[in-house]
């Protein structure tokens, strides 16, 4: 019933444009553990009013089957500031339609009245003990995209088999229910609640449990610049600084207000590094700020840059900031807990493609480290399991600039990470140390961990399949490569097939998934490299790391060795010319 998407389809029919119609209606968006992520537009392959209604109807039926008390507890729905003028789609509109679906079935809905960061949804699920949460966001994707992200009652993103169950329920509930289009219905409903004020108060109270140096924060002369990259983060990072008694950061004026066009950046993704931070650098130079904090548009990720002695800006990688935050959060914990027995219940987590620096810190300090599959859905669920067993999960991170610094949110959170980074920098400044100097100190103490990651773009699923099949049948059938250029391969773990050469029974310990590609190579020189497909983008990614024991200080030699390993990986395993990547 949306006049804009309707008109688009009718126009194509009139033109007899079978090619475009095939694109719009050829296949339905797939609902996976990351929910939905696609461009806004007409047809079942895009995010629009109808596909949102169908998805929510399926999710509602699935929740009814799983929770006898759904009508007592309810769900939370949040949204970012994305909008798509030509198809009439927007995050707010989609959130209201999703709310209408639940309310029409007698389910209480906690619908935020305004934009919020993504972490507020999992926080609300836990805080109000709800059955589930939905966040309408496409995070840092291009401006035409939107997404539908789902959280379970434990406050973590869903994992299998929920995605399969929801997907099946969507298939069974495609016809819109009688009141599906009438979103005015919710405004007068007693089932509609607005958690905005409560959550804004409680969240900032909860993150203050991670504030350990209030006096330093009040006094510090360190200046910060913050950018929300045209997303939702501005107001919330300002409030977080206030909660920690820090002076507010300078906000990049051109980027502080939400704008679905993202006019000042090519991609609204701070992971892309310096291109996204151009305006931040300029403001920092003007105001004499040493540190830049950048959130992605839904404020669940954080990038950090620091001005060096040379006048250059250093943008920290996700692994480097993970090392700093891991060191910092453990140091703060240690200062609070003098009881040496307590450490046996302390855990930190990171994903398998992230740096192993936390493992090195854990080994030396005596706490537990665990690695999970890629993505915060795995870390959030594992953290909850551990917390239910009475363990303390202090920190989890992934190299894609995602950090979970606060047990109140079982997902990555760029708001708490920003303010905790600011407190860490303020504390270090009292010792005349920069973040970069402290990072070097961490590596000196626990061993250098040098990482390098990138990706190739590939729009053809068959080429991707062939590339990985080739790696599994490298020297004849069912043989993996024994070398990569001059580098000898000493171990293989294939999480698509479940093979692991290092295990006695050759079976991988981490869960395997045939629907995505992921192979990890260990090399005789201590290097590790993983190749995997992305769940949300047409990319084949790689992640590589060289770890040296403490005391090996020849960093330049390590970097050179890793560069050569990566070049060999690209040349022999990706074969970009042959595969047209």
Automatic annotation (TrEMBL):
> Which residue ranges does the record assign to the Alpha-D-phosphohexomutase alpha/beta/alpha domain?
29-175, 201-307, 339-446
GO BP term, example: purine ribonucleoside salvage
State whether keyword Isomerase applies. Answer: yes
Give an example GO molecular function.
phosphopentomutase activity
Q: Where does it reside?
A: Cytoplasm
GO cellular component terms attached to this protein's record: cytoplasm; nucleus
InterPro entries referenced in this protein's UniProt entry, alphabetically: A-D-PHexomutase_a/b/a-I, A-D-PHexomutase_a/b/a-I/II/III, A-D-PHexomutase_a/b/a-II, A-D-PHexomutase_a/b/a-III, A-D-PHexomutase_C_sf, A-D-PHexomutase_CS, Alpha-D-phosphohexomutase_SF
| Cofactor(s) needed | Mg(2+)
| Primary location class | cytoplasm
SUPFAM superfamilies hit by this protein: Phosphoglucomutase, C-terminal domain (SSF55957), Phosphoglucomutase, first 3 domains (SSF53738)
Coiled-coil residue spans: none
* Family annotation (Pfam families): PGM_PMM_I, PGM_PMM_II, PGM_PMM_III
**What keywords sit in the KW lines?**
Carbohydrate metabolism, Cytoplasm, Glucose metabolism, Isomerase, Magnesium, Metal-binding, Phosphoprotein
Name the family the entry cites: Belongs to the phosphohexose mutase family.
What is the official name of this protein in its record?
Phosphoglucomutase-2
Q: What is the lineage of its organism?
A: Eukaryota, Metazoa, Chordata, Craniata, Vertebrata
